[in-house]
Amino acid sequence: MTILLAACSGLLWGALAHGLEVAHALPIALVAGLTVGLLMGFLVKPLRDVDWPAAAALSLLGLYVAVVLFAAAYSVGDLVTSRQSLANWPAAIAEACWDFAWGLSLSGYVFLLWPLSFANHTMVWWCQRRNNVIPAK
């Protein structure tokens, strides 16, 4: 159930990136979002039992990690479809990661996306805790 939730969350984040016009190709954004959503679900899993201030801080950190991972995945998808030379890939991927991370901060989107990230992390952690309950005998 948690994997399905993380995958659905990732798809929604990819669609949101497309809606915010930072990821122009919707199919690539959805695949990148799905991939990052699954990865982030596994990365945040061990942190599910922290208090809410730490959860808020982790969700901000997780937002930046997810944005950089999404930028890398999206740029790889974009580079594959544009058939650019492999020699250009490292610079293009690094530039996309840098631009997405700075864009998140400087555009003010962090104030919109951080509460969504916190809600998303909380929902994933709730689902993980719910699935880890040991039934009474």
Write the layout of secondary structure elements.
Blueprint: H1 2-19, H2 26-44, H3 52-82, H4 89-106, H5 109-131
Helix pairs in contact: 1-2, 1-5, 2-3, 3-4, 3-5
Helix proportion range = over 70%
Count of folded domains: 1
The low-confidence parts are none
Largest sheet: none
Give the topology string: H per helix, E per strand: HHHHH
| Strand-residue proportion | under 5%
Inertia-based shape: globular
What can you tell me about this protein's structure?
By secondary structure, this protein is mainly α. The protein has one domain (2-131). Helices cover 80% and strands 0% of the residues. The protein has 5 helices and no strands. It has helices at 2-19, 26-44, 52-82, 89-106, 109-131. Helix 2 (26-44) runs antiparallel to helix 3. The longest helix is centred in the middle third of the chain and has 31 residues, at 52-82. It is globular. The two termini are 23 Å apart. The mean pLDDT is 88.
Short account of what is shown:
By secondary structure, the protein is mainly α. The chain has one domain. It is built from 5 helices and no strands.
Note the main attributes of this structure.
5 helices, 137 residues, globular, mainly alpha
